[in-house]
Amino acid sequence: MNYLHSRLDLHRFQRLGMVEAIWGEHKTVEQLVEILESLKKLGKLAFVTRVNQEKAGKLIDLFKTAQFHEDAHCLTLGDPLIEDNSLGMVVILSGGTSDLKVAAEAELALRWHGIKTKLLLDVGVAGLHRLLSSLKNIEESKVLIACAGMEGALPTVLAGLMPQPVIGVPVSVGYGVSEKGNASLNGMLASCAPGLSVVNIDNGYGAAMAALRILKCNRTSSSKCD
Amino acid sequence: MNYLHSRLDLHRFQRLGMVEAIWGEHKTVEQLVEILESLKKLGKLAFVTRVNQEKAGKLIDLFKTAQFHEDAHCLTLGDPLIEDNSLGMVVILSGGTSDLKVAAEAELALRWHGIKTKLLLDVGVAGLHRLLSSLKNIEESKVLIACAGMEGALPTVLAGLMPQPVIGVPVSVGYGVSEKGNASLNGMLASCAPGLSVVNIDNGYGAAMAALRILKCNRTSSSKCD
Amino acid sequence: MNYLHSRLDLHRFQRLGMVEAIWGEHKTVEQLVEILESLKKLGKLAFVTRVNQEKAGKLIDLFKTAQFHEDAHCLTLGDPLIEDNSLGMVVILSGGTSDLKVAAEAELALRWHGIKTKLLLDVGVAGLHRLLSSLKNIEESKVLIACAGMEGALPTVLAGLMPQPVIGVPVSVGYGVSEKGNASLNGMLASCAPGLSVVNIDNGYGAAMAALRILKCNRTSSSKCD
Amino acid sequence: MNYLHSRLDLHRFQRLGMVEAIWGEHKTVEQLVEILESLKKLGKLAFVTRVNQEKAGKLIDLFKTAQFHEDAHCLTLGDPLIEDNSLGMVVILSGGTSDLKVAAEAELALRWHGIKTKLLLDVGVAGLHRLLSSLKNIEESKVLIACAGMEGALPTVLAGLMPQPVIGVPVSVGYGVSEKGNASLNGMLASCAPGLSVVNIDNGYGAAMAALRILKCNRTSSSKCD
Amino acid sequence: MNYLHSRLDLHRFQRLGMVEAIWGEHKTVEQLVEILESLKKLGKLAFVTRVNQEKAGKLIDLFKTAQFHEDAHCLTLGDPLIEDNSLGMVVILSGGTSDLKVAAEAELALRWHGIKTKLLLDVGVAGLHRLLSSLKNIEESKVLIACAGMEGALPTVLAGLMPQPVIGVPVSVGYGVSEKGNASLNGMLASCAPGLSVVNIDNGYGAAMAALRILKCNRTSSSKCD
Amino acid sequence: MNYLHSRLDLHRFQRLGMVEAIWGEHKTVEQLVEILESLKKLGKLAFVTRVNQEKAGKLIDLFKTAQFHEDAHCLTLGDPLIEDNSLGMVVILSGGTSDLKVAAEAELALRWHGIKTKLLLDVGVAGLHRLLSSLKNIEESKVLIACAGMEGALPTVLAGLMPQPVIGVPVSVGYGVSEKGNASLNGMLASCAPGLSVVNIDNGYGAAMAALRILKCNRTSSSKCD
Amino acid sequence: MNYLHSRLDLHRFQRLGMVEAIWGEHKTVEQLVEILESLKKLGKLAFVTRVNQEKAGKLIDLFKTAQFHEDAHCLTLGDPLIEDNSLGMVVILSGGTSDLKVAAEAELALRWHGIKTKLLLDVGVAGLHRLLSSLKNIEESKVLIACAGMEGALPTVLAGLMPQPVIGVPVSVGYGVSEKGNASLNGMLASCAPGLSVVNIDNGYGAAMAALRILKCNRTSSSKCD
Amino acid sequence: MNYLHSRLDLHRFQRLGMVEAIWGEHKTVEQLVEILESLKKLGKLAFVTRVNQEKAGKLIDLFKTAQFHEDAHCLTLGDPLIEDNSLGMVVILSGGTSDLKVAAEAELALRWHGIKTKLLLDVGVAGLHRLLSSLKNIEESKVLIACAGMEGALPTVLAGLMPQPVIGVPVSVGYGVSEKGNASLNGMLASCAPGLSVVNIDNGYGAAMAALRILKCNRTSSSKCD
Asked: What was the ipTM of the complex prediction?
């Protein structure tokens, strides 16, 4: 069977200001190699999410400029964009240590786009003092990304306390009713805190891109985004 | 058709220490009248939950000692048990004004069994200072009942702050993913706060009875409940 | 029964820069009157969502400065904040005429906070040319809010075309699998467009507040929000 | 235990014009061998879906005329039907590279029944220009099969642009709310594009047979199908 | 609030060969009047689905050429397209009398587009002889539309017997697990009959448009649809 | 930790006429050994369901009178009850070869209780003639057990044709909407055929015991079961 | 529109031994009149389920031999079959008074087919002594039908105590997680009691027909049902 | 990437009287080592839940005072609190042997906090006599914890018989509708027994902490918990 090869969305950077991102989980190593080869030839950067250790090992052997980020389960090709402090900082918070993978994916994706970040783990609301004593660290942030599994109450409490944009990321950590992250997702969507917005379960990358859109479109005082 | 009539569970008081309770929502006025007549003849108290204004009106006309409690949507027959302060107090909290119906059902059910109660509305976690500034009022409570709709985070935050038994009651107030109270229910079950227990959505009466069991079984230092 | 009265979250404006908002759907007229009285005495503005014609009629009779916004099913007390063009404009798009209620709630909530808005109806993706020919109108917007029922594909297509923050609002318009807006919600969460964030079904108000957070926190070039 | 052996539906070809198809996933190698033996003796063709590499290896060793199609995870016995161009062509589109397995199953099933096909990958709607620039290739197709995971918006956009029959195939590629393909399925069923029809998640074979029915029943201008 | 008015998708007829269709259920009478006025001015036909008796009454008073089709709950504006027998006939079957509304919507939508139709009620599979004795009537049909509530087995049995395209329409008739038509929908999607395709629950109009696409694209022996 | 050991329900045979059955899937080999030892000492028979090859191997090594039934994934201890033809025969039907495991469990469980059985595979309704031509074999059966995955229509068609008790067993064979057997379960529960009853997904043993209850309680013409 | 009229399944009595039954809930009065007229002309009996007071009133005015059974929400046409005591008795149990409607439908349907019945209300398992003290009454029954809402534990406890066939009927009485009867349905399907079979939620009629099949097929000692 | 390290909730013991507990399932060995090191340095006890054999082996090699509790899948660091009989005893019951893991987690967690416990396995309600004959053993218990999979009826029957607080723990043992413990969870929440409260599926630890809260807050007759 002859079929037309993968068409990369090569204008994404121009259109949206984002590095080409590849969803790695459901792709074979062969498919990933083919895609990365194309990007390499075009001198493009690449950001591959949801890559396990084994796939990563094979890809790193083949691509010199590839780098595996173990905490975030991501693989990058090429160098990150130069940090641009004028865009402001993003703080990524997580309820527990188990949420690290998702929080790290968000952190890495922002850092790779030149955004300054800070990661704040283990500030879940069942031990409220941990969050309350961290508020100072959060104040300077332009955007807050809050990752939480279980009942997912962290973004709700946070968005009730702070005026910044808060992006909730439900995490598939839990068991029973919270096994796949649905309790957390619904808790965030149902939040009584005004103006909390949400992305798909475990979608650290998506939260990062939502934050990037916010930072970029407000960089200048002109009315038009750039 | 001739069928065997409703058998009241007349030993419930002796066995469990609870007044006969009747689930009013799916019963016709005729069925309720029949049941209340039987109880009246036996000199028993009755506690009917989920009775609307219309049904209540008809029943009050027929039974002199019946009383309708509008906030709680409950109807009682006979006098409440005498308040027994030695059992300790129960505080019932709610996230918002819309949760009143359920909180009031819990409060009434406890009061009707002779328990001292306090009701604390509008302490939802999206405005955290309201809860934090109320903690003093809560300290003296033997058991806490926390009613919340939407994302249902109140009992989680509460159980992380206070050592008492906390019973979460999800409330069917919300829309979209929280329309029927499921987001709230799952949030409470998935809670990362240790030792929070939960009853069915809108089950204020059930939470009250769970609190009653707790208070009664610990009244004396003997090992056996009475 | 004597219970503690509704505690309004009176510091919300200072903390989050938002007018006091009241969820109207599950509250009785009596409860709303009590709350609005309190706010009026304190000289506060109020924004009541999900009020039907009947409730609104009764409230308008009692409060001189109240105004009912029929399209949006909202009632306001007092005057809107003065329009502040420096914050930039928000375009609210909707897939079909049936989504008007939700889109109008978002539009009104922003306008009431002094934000300039534009409403663009009937640009659903099944007639793609309608959206493509409207892109010019969208370019100047700082934030995009996209409301859609049925399959909810509008925000996905939009976020693939435009670099701004896009907030998706699923609308409970549909039947069968899309009856309550769940197909639309899940479609938006599952979107393959990077950086789309989502609020609860029909939550026009929430989307507006998410947009407000974005606009406000980026007003100045300083790193701290105000 | 003696039980009656598998009864093949041997008249399917006469009745429906389709090659005998065997669902391979939940069958053991032993069961598949027994079935293929029977068909071979009768001189019949066979089309086995959802066969993994390991099962395929064992079967190919046993049957000379068997062939494994790796992309499609299908195994065939015997030669395909002779291509009949008079029936027209079918284009199979997919949103991303990860959908290949399902798209390839559809393509193979049609090709095996003598239908001319074209496969068009990576035309997902988050990069709309890829689809728009491919419309020329699609015009000549008699039927369109659109495979998509995630939010599954491709068939909706397609059916809004093109007049042919469009068959949507949800693909179980995604995570969180789209993990098993349900978001995609519901998105297609809820589509606001008129006349889009849908098959089960990952059912590339079913979509192919639906297309075959369409092509065959309209071959002649007579009113009766043949 | 001034917002941009409803944009009708006026090129739909040219693009897809379909009369402008309006989803009537979630629109107010005012919204429908506005839309119908626009179409009338442009000399266009209109097909409004899911209109109840009350709405229909008001609209018929205002529009001379409007007509209400009670069985189908649809309202039409203008005359149907002239019947074109060369396109072939469509038989619409239903499992029970209760499915009439949906079957009638499909039948009307096709008839309105000039297609010859036949309606065959009460051929549910629990009394199989009714279907088997009707097969003769079905043979001449180019496309079959099968509407069924409850367990929805009719299209499965039908697609196992007949070679034509079969479009299943789940109907929201039932109770318990089949209350909203989901059991029927899933039964059709899960069907073991090859090549059955499905539309949303109660979507008679959608099934009709899917059938129309099939009939039109195969009218001529040329490879391109018209 | 010292805990009270497993209490076998040793009176089950006297009370219900059933051999002691043990659910094997969630038990460790150690737990099963302990249970089987107890039964052996008491001279009891045992019927262990859902045992995989590996567990079975270990158990067979330890217990001389144990026997593994591979098709049914069951292990038995001791000899079956003597066949009692006076109770009548049960025919177990299945839609496809993939349902064998469940059908075999039902067949074995009945045979082990002394019931005469017949197994009829591959009579799914998508090839209706296979079922219709088998009706003669079914007529003599006292009870019918119909196992089906996918859309699960077999018991519906069967119960519409035959007067005997029909017990439907949904099978977890399928993919997409039918992946875990839910489509099949709901299809059977929603059946429009009168008097079809259903057991849990894959519960071949349960269906067998339901059949056994039917056969036993009607053996004599006396009014009391024995 | 001319369509083929409702085809009654007139051979059902011969085939299955059941009176013609009509599902009344989703049919208009006009449709019911038409069906009953046909049956009356043919001298057939009819059993219409799920008829409300209003519909019943209109039908009774038109048909002399019609009778409305208020408890059961059923309407019958003609006289019941003559009681045949040789078939044995069926006891119908219910957990609470609220389940009466469903239990009464089952009872009436059996009585209408000439079966002797007994109805035993309010034997729910939360007051276990009520069930235990009724066991004597149950012993003589050939088949047991157990109706229960809420958690639906009654049939499980019953099937653990008694050897007869037990048919569980989940009832849509409850709230929160048990609102539509799903908790009860799943509880019955998941039962650890061997040989319990289940019908759809509220399907009293179906349970009755399942019982009828059991009684009829075992009347004689011959191997063939009659 | 440098991120802030895990913040242990070190005041939990003072605040809630509970040993530091760590959720082990979604943490890597490295994460667990880091956390246990911190606690060890601080001289704290630790209770790690959901640790498998493999993880436990590695941890035990590293920490001298660590102990693995195989039945409960828990690992402890340090010695348990000294048994305090004045707090009273807790009986943990389970429906079947398969529920052991969850029951053992609850038992161990209580014992580790100095509470006297008794474990009573295999008292499921399908063999009711086993529960009824154990009631004597239960009477002395201050709190009852009832673990059950499948239909989860045990806590309902128990709470109907006994006056103590009953905490239901659904167990993820089952298949089909009860596969993940949801049938059991919903059955417990929907229970008709008054005052039963519930924790998440498999949450033995949570049930233990709920029991601990009850015991501790009632130790003295003073109104304030300690």
From this structure: 0.92
